[in-house]
UniProtKB/TrEMBL annotation:
GO terms for molecular function: inositol monophosphate 1-phosphatase activity; metal ion binding. CDD domains: IMPase. Pfam families: Inositol_P. Coiled coil: none annotated. InterPro entries: IMPase (IPR033942), Inositol_monoP_metal-BS (IPR020583), Inositol_monophosphatase-like (IPR000760), Inositol_monophosphatase_CS (IPR020550), Inositol_monophosphatase_SuhB (IPR022337). This is Inositol-1-monophosphatase. Its cofactor is Mg(2+). Its EC number is 3.1.3.25.
Amino acid sequence: MTTAEKRPLASPLDLGAAIDVAVCAAHAGAALLQSYAHHRADLVIDRKARNDLVSQADREAEAAVLAVLRERTPEFGIVAEETGGNAAGPATWYIDPLDGTTNFLHGIPHYAVSIALVAHTGTRLPGGDAVAEDTPVIGVVYDPSREELFTAVHGIGSWLNGRRISCSRTATLDDAVLATGFPFRDFSFAGQYMPMLHDAINQSRGVRRMGAAALDLAWTACGRYDGYWEMGLAPWDVAAGTVILREAGGVCTDMHLRDPWPVGGRLVAGNPDIYQALQSLVTPHLDA
């Protein structure tokens, strides 16, 4: 059962229209971010918690994204990082206006706007079938520094700047380059995570930590990484990347294999072979 209010549309979701809206919203948010890119010293920055920062750029980019989504898709719920919201209606937008805030504030050009649409249980998709569980169906991750736009539509595919992408074909962990994210805000799971990192360093070709979960998933989708795992994230960090990777032929699941997508912020992802190896690597270190 979904937590969203059940109000399914009489007709299936128009995924073509939804991806157009999401791309438009992502460009609107990114335009705000880039307007501040060379004036970071002037930004007003607040500290929500240890190592959890929010800036004027985050807030204004989110407002720009929300303005597009509310005008063009008022029937959908919205859950956004800075302003919150609730899952509602047949589907809900999950929005991170600036994934990689710390990178952005330090002038590191590795951050993105992330927008996803999650269809709720019972909502019909094109073709007439209803989803049996909450399912990310639209994903947009836009990296304005590189002008790379990752997009995905459920059942159709994933693209980078209009070119179809697929995950890597690396078959074994010892040949794999992995992405991860260190504990930075919530350190309660460090005792589980650090043994995972130790094993991954010793069993893979290399481990990278770039500081933007949405891009980690997108880069896994296009084969730059072979696998990715992280803990302590939020739904808006991973919703778009989940569908982008899945539509690129990869696997992205809740680390505990309980939720239909990594809504709890703990995930394992990769091409099918590396996903299995990585899931086997992390599972022994998980608390019940």
